[in-house]
Amino acid sequence: MLLSKKEKLGKDGEKIVERTAVYLNGRLVGFHADGETLVRQLREQKRNGQITQEANFAHNPKTSELFINTDSGRARRPYILVENGRSKYTPELKEKVAKGEVGWTDLVKMGVVEYLDCEEEDDVSYVAVREEELTPEHTHLEIDPISITGVTVSQLPFPEYNSSPRITMACAMGKQSLGLYASNFNIRVDSRAHFMYYPQRPIARSRPYEFLKLAKRPAGQNFVVAITSYYGYNMGDAVVMNRNAVDRALGRSVFYKTYESEERRYPGGQKDKFEIPQPTVQGYRDEAMYRHLGEDGIVVPEAGVGARDVLVGKTSPPRFLEEVSSFGISEEKKRENSVSIKNGEDGTVDSVMLTESPANNKLVKIRVRSIKIPEAGDKFASRHGQKGVIGLLAPQEDMPFTKDGVVPDLIINPHAIPSRMTAGHILEMLGAKAACMNCKQVDASAFNGDKEEAFKKTLVEYGFEDTGMETLYDGLSGEPIKSKIFIGVIYYQKLHHLVSNKMHVRSRGPVQLLTHQPTEGRAREGGLRFGEMERDCLIGYGAGLLLRERLLEESDKTTELVCNKCGSIAVHDHIKNREYCPLCESTDLHPVEMSYAFKLLLDEIKAIGIFPRLLLRDKA
Predict the structure, then answer these.
(1) Does residue 114 contact residue 139 with C-beta atoms inside 8 Å?
(2) Average pLDDT over residues 239-264
(3) What's the angle, vertex CA 476, arms to CA 475 and CA 477, rounded to 5?
């Protein structure tokens, strides 16, 4: 017995016609006898404009299911339709598009461009990346291979020459770069903002970089870079930078930080007041801290302020009710509640803005600026995931130079290239170097950018080696360096990881109330963490006394009285001025040095109903 594709035999040998289940946005709406024919008709009607372009169809013959999707929120991509191995976007249409006679929506309505969602892509599509690759089997054609990438990747130069982890890093670091973040930055009061003094457009840039108008918001500068070692100062990911170029404002930026304060109103008619606090106010600071304030208690613009200097003098009502003075008269006390510069920061008051808050209270916003000149430890990165920190700012006269007297702005380590597989970095250096000669912009678009051969040809025309290598002369000795060095131009970004915003030291400072250990973090003047691995290191060296000093003497050392009879921690009765054991009333007590965190642990163990005992014996 011959059976068609849509028929099968049941248990009793009878013919059963298979039907296709039709789902609309995931909901079963019915069955159809011939799913293949139905989906073909639906696609034809959609391409003819009889059905909305928002619909997508996916047929699964194995499970006899047909999915129709029209719901919002689906990711859809446009493709050019292909018929019999030929693109429907013909040269005639290209001319009409170039003249402006035909637009994007017209191409979609004409069935030249079709949007596919992921289900329909998996079902029928066989996409060619380039027109010359088309075969009769192909159903669709990419509009441009660069559309495979997202917004961030598409604006990177030559990404197809780099390994994927480096592209990921380049995307992440592009968001951390400093530049012209907003053209009205001078009238904005952002809480934190970085602005580069002389941002430049990259010489090598992709087409999406132009479409996205990123050239109007540049975030980097074109550096002359040499790839070589320099007396060990660029080991690993460190870089050596030209100090004279930095003095000429290379990589210079300004950092804006905004402080704000409000005259709040409290229940009972009390409120804050902007003023220079009087010495009688509770919590009055050193008089020198108020030296920059005007008569209204607000700092004067263009004043140079440093750590702990007051920006807004403010007094607030007491946290509790009014206290009765010694004369029996009720008096209102004020407490100091000024806004000051945090420890470790400084700058110049850029602008002062007085306004009203939504609650109709007086509000002041103060923007402080500080100039950030590149220094050892500041982070720079190319657009190929090649990040590094400055290891040395070398004087220009000590750096290597070419026969034409060109001194590199930056020297990076040769070991950074082969293991990271960032050939795009080399290609951009070569291309931008060629562009500096012929004054033509480099198209660094993914998959369709300018080729290496064109760069080599240009360099040879202008008397350079096609490899980009040059003989450099040692700045210290004046002798030519024996091996040739690769030198070119590449776009580098300054990232907002600046040493001046991260540097943190402390000799003494505040401790936590609960554990008596130093506070955590730069903002709270915290201590530097001495972790388990550092502890292991000192144990390995046998430096027991140093370990004791770090983890006990300089942290939370305390002396507690321990009962010799029952082993519990004794207490001091301040009223009777005596010390005794709260458990057995014994006065046979001995002082024991311990970490306060250990005493806290004993208290927490007691809290869950376990009695810890400390058994004492003499040091022998």
Answers:
(1) no
(2) 95
(3) 100
Tokens for 410, please give them. Answer: 């930056």
pLDDT tens digit string along 486-499? 999 999 999 999 99
Query: Would you mind telling me the total number of residues written for the chain in this entry?
Result: 620
To the question of domain 159-252+377-494 being in CATH 2.40.270.10, the answer is yes
In the CATH hierarchy, which fold is given to the domain comprising 254-372? OB fold (Dihydrolipoamide Acetyltransferase, E2P) (2.40.50)
Domain 254-372 in the same topology as domain 18-69: no
Q: Which residues pair with 258 in a beta bridge?
A: 367
| Tokens representing residue 19 in the block | 């039907």
3-state secondary structure of 51: coil
* pTM of the model as a whole: 0.83
Span 18-69: which CATH code? 3.90.1070.20
Q: Which residues are catalytic?
A: 237
> Residue 26 has which token pair?
């995931």
- C-alpha pair distances (Å), 599 with each of 547, 606, 612: 19, 11, 11
DSSP 191-228: SEEEEESS----SEE-HHHHHTTGGGS---EEEEEEES
Take residue 365 and report the two structure tokens written for it. Answer: 């916003």
Measured in whole angstroms, the distance separating CA 146 from the mean position of its chain's CA atoms is: 25
Rounded to the nearest 5°, which phi and psi values hold at 556? -135, 45
Between CA 22 and CA 20 the distance in angstroms is: 6
How would residue 585 be classed by pLDDT, with cut points 50, 70 and 90?
confident
Region 589-611 average pLDDT:
95
Q: What ranges in 54-194 are assigned the alpha helix state H? A: 91-99, 104-109, 118-124, 151-154, 164-174
10 Å CB burial of residue 136 (0-12, 13-18, 19+) is exposed
CA 617 to chain centre: 56
Whose CA is closest to 34, among 47, 23, 46, 21? 21
Q: How confident is the model at residue 200 (pLDDT cuts 50, 70, 90)?
A: very high
